[in-house]
Write a structure and sequence with these properties.
Bound molecules: adenosine-5'-diphosphate
Structural class: alpha+beta
CATH topology of the largest domain: D-amino Acid Aminotransferase, Chain A, domain 1
Number of strands: 20
Strand order of the largest sheet: 13-12-9-10-11-14-19-17
Largest sheet: 8 strands, antiparallel
Strand content: 25-35%
Helix content: 25-40%
CATH superfamily of the largest domain: ATP-grasp fold, B domain
CATH class of the largest domain: Alpha Beta
Oligomer: single chain
Number of helices: 15
Shape: globular
């Protein structure tokens, strides 16, 4: 087992990883920017190293500084969390080249899946249905127009190196397509340094269903069920639940089996998530994330499995501690992402936390690095907390979630708590009747936050 793990991340996920390490008796090293010197995970870690100024490009993305920090602290392994360097194949390779274990998949698998075109090719080879679209990149406006005719509008242009919903633009007709193609390329170039795009049919009422996978280096593969992440704004998830209200037992089995099939085909190891769109009882692969997901705690809630702990065990070469039939799925779980943002305009709201009280009680988990007096910096992602609630049934979970959101006190910054409260009180949500466009329709209809 590792003696010491460096956590190459910040915020709630850094704390999440620290907790798993400490539960396993492993020492932690926090790395942080100058803006994060008083962050909770830095305070709790056994050691900490400042790796640069606030800008992420100079600190949390500074590979040389992170590997130097790992070397001088005699670290055995690095956990990248999510975001930042977690899906950077060169970083994973560099870590291994320095004799340090990268807690994640092989660099080649990060590379293949990080490119959405090669990822779709792998899915097709494994016999998994994909959203109808281009076979590869779209390299000219003429090509885009021609292909759109054969696929049929509406169309979605997506960035090959995409992530976080960036570089994605829909089009209902030819004129919009030209514009979408240009904007998506530009956005992709700014966000990922790669302007390559591809095309998919723009599905009208799908749900986002993803399967959590764990696999070890001995070829054992298990799934931990699905997460329904259809509640999104700007293609970014806001609330996730498991099990999905839209799937029956047979469909759940079918999608999960398909995801395992892909993992076996690839020879993939560690934790991963296969994402699908689900519409009219058909499911289509869209992408794979080769890392821990933000929404992993809802899966932990219904399975009792600590996914970060399993990631660490797998990275040591240990076999999975359970078989598929030994995994018990119990009850229902929902996660609300709480962001430091104005709930009406979504403009980020950094600042000093002047009042803070977290909800508690049976089935309530709060993953957050906040504390009274902490200043949320303006330099990073606006997520400041995740509220995860578990109940025996979906109804019990919803009642508990409402109660927990009600108890949550965060003052000094604006948060999306009021929006989450409105959302979970809507009858469509209560009845489980929503798709990936539902939340935006609701926000646009101004049904929300009319105070
Ligand atoms: P990213 O890597 O940027 O998150 P994804 O491919 O995972 O991109 O897609 C993010 C979200 O965008 C999906 O969850 C879904 O809501 C929407 N989306 C992606 N592809 C399609 C599609 N073909 N039709 C409709 N919506 C889509």
């Amino acid at each position: 087992m590792f003696e010491k793990i460096l956590i190459a991340n910040r915020g709630e996920v850094a704390l999440r990883i620290h907790r798993a390490c400490r539960d396993m008796g492993i020492k932690t090293v926090a790395v942080h920017s100058t803006a994060d010197h008083d962050a909770m995970h830095v305070r709790l870690a056994n050691e900490s190293v400042c790796i640069g100024p606030p800008a992420a490009s100079d600190s949390y993305l500074n590979t040389a500084a992170i590997i130097t920090a790992a070397t001088i602290t005699n670290t055995d392994a690095i956990h990248p969390g999510y975001g930042f360097l977690s899906e950077n194949a060169d970083f994973a390779q560099m870590v291994e080249d320095h004799g340090i274990t990268f807690i994640g998949p092989l660099p080649e698998h990060i590379r293949i899946m990080g490119n959405k075109i090669t990822a779709k090719q792998v899915a097709q080879e494994a016999g998994i249905p994909c959203v109808p679209g281009s076979n590869g990149s779209i390299d000219s406006e003429e090509e885009a127009l021609l292909l759109a005719e054969s696929i049929g509008y509406p169309i979605l242009i997506k960035a090959t190196s995409g992530g976080g919903g960036k570089g994605m633009k829909s089009a209902d007709n030819k004129d919009q397509l030209i514009e979408a193609y240009r904007i998506a390329r530009r956005e992709a170039n700014v966000a990922f340094g790669n302007s390559e795009v591809y095309m998919e049919k723009y599905l009208q009422r799908p749900r986002h269903i993803e399967i959590q996978i764990l696999s070890d280096i001995h070829g054992n593969v298990v799934h931990l069920g699905e997460r329904d992440c259809s509640l999104q704004r700007n293609h970014q998830k806001m609330l996730e639940e498991t099990p999905s209200p839209a799937l029956n037992f047979e469909m759940r089995e079918k999608i999960s089996r398909t995801a395992c099939q892909m993992i076996r085909h690839l020879g993939y190891r560690n934790a991963g998530t296969i994402e699908f769109l689900y519409e009219n009882s058909e499911f289509y692969f869209i992408e794979m994330n080769t890392r821990l997901q933000v929404e992993h705690p809802i899966t932990e809630a219904i399975t009792g499995i600590d996914i970060v702990r399993e990631q660490i065990r797998i990275a040591t070469g240990a076999p999975l501690g359970f078989t598929q039939s030994e995994i018990n799925f119990s009850g229902h779980a929902i996660e609300c992402r709480i962001n430091a943002e104005d709930p009406k305009t979504f403009i980020s709201s950094p600042g000093r936390i002047s009042k803070f009280h977290t909800p508690g009680g049976l089935g309530v988990r709060v993953d957050s690095g906040l504390y009274l007096g902490y200043t949320v910096p303006h330099n990073y992602d606006s997520n400041i907390a995740k509220l995860i609630v578990h109940g025996k049934t979906r109804n019990e979970c919803l009642m508990r979630l409402r109660r927990a959101l009600d108890e949550f006190v965060i003052e000094g910054v604006k948060t999306t708590v009021p929006l989450q409260m409105e959302l979970i009180s809507d009858s469509d949500f209560i009845n489980g009747k929503y798709d990936i466009h539902w939340l935006e329709r609701l926000i646009n209809d101004k049904k929300f936050i009319e105070n």
